[in-house]
Structures are given as C-alpha cells and as structure tokens.
Automatic annotation (TrEMBL):
GO cellular component, one term: cytoplasm
InterPro entries: GSKIP (IPR037395), GSKIP_dom (IPR007967), GSKIP_dom_sf (IPR023231)
UniProt similarity note: Belongs to the GSKIP family.
Annotated ranges, domain GSKIP: 34-134
Organism field: Centropus bengalensis (lesser coucal)
PANTHER family per record: GSK3B-INTERACTING PROTEIN (PTHR12490)
Protein name: GSKIP protein
Example GO molecular function: kinase regulator activity
SUPFAM superfamilies from the UniProt entry: Hypothetical protein c14orf129, hspc210
Source taxon at top rank: Eukaryota
GO biological processes: regulation of canonical Wnt signaling pathway
Length: 140
C-alpha cells in the first residue's frame, strides 16, 4: 500500500518565495495577479482571433487587467478581466467607457462566442481536429 499522507513537519521551511519580493505581498492570500491571468487568456484563444494582447496602456493590477481583442470580423474590443470574469468595457483598443454595463462572462470562450461567429467556427473546427487526432491515437 502506497502512503499518500504528507506530514507538514517534513516539508522544507524555505520554499524560495520568502526572498522573492514579488511574492512577499501574496503570502497567505489567494490573490491572483490578473496580468498573469490575462496573458494565459490571450495564449489560450489567440489562434481563433485576428489579434489579442494585454493592454500596455491601461493600468493592470492584482485585481484587474485589460485585454485588447480584434475579432476575425475586424471588430475591436477592450476587455476587463477581474475575479468576476470578463466583460467588454470599450469598442476599440485601450478604450474604456464607464457608461457601458455589459454582462460578465465566466470564460473568454463564452465572451468571444457571443461576439464573434468566426471565432465560434474556428474554435469549433480546432476542437473537431483535436478530437479526430485523439480518436486516431486511441485506434492505433
């Protein structure tokens, strides 16, 4: 029988995070750096849009980041990413409009699905190709 319990006393005291000033503020909290989250969002769906990048103009913080996206239909949006999700806050790169009260989306997939039929098609085709590849792998 394999032992899976971990005795906390056996863990090393120094995990390397203490010395790194970037992490000192995060110790003991669940705060995610939204800029890192935003980069992950961009990397996830970049293949299915014309252009997408984290804003270098608008202020990113621990709790908010802004992502510029241009759909394959050539529509431009500025997206806000927070713990609540993603939403459109402007209709051009690096533009925010406080009067906009667009709904939050839990995922970038559902947001882009609502904005761009071409995204939906490209993403769906990529999914089908992946499934076909998995099917071939399992048959060999």
């Amino acid at each position: 029988r394999m032992e899976t319990d971990c005795n906390p006393m056996e863990l090393p005291n120094n995990t390397g995070f203490e010395e790194d000033s970037d992490y000192r503020d995060f110790e003991g909290t669940d705060v995610k750096d939204m800029r890192l989250e935003a980069e992950a969002v961009v990397n996830d769906v970049l293949f299915a849009v014309s252009n997408m990048f984290v804003s270098k103009t608008l202020r990113c913080a621990e709790d908010v980041a802004y992502i510029n996206v241009e759909t394959r239909e050539r529509n431009r949006y500025c997206l806000e990413l927070t713990e609540a999700g993603l939403r459109v806050v402007g209709y051009d790169f690096d533009q925010t409009d406080d009067r906009l009260h667009t709904p939050y989306h839990e995922t970038v997939y559902s947001l882009l699905d609502s904005l761009s039929p071409a995204y939906r098609e490209v993403f769906g085709n990529a999914l089908l190709q992946r499934l076909e590849a998995l099917k071939k792998e399992s048959q060999s």
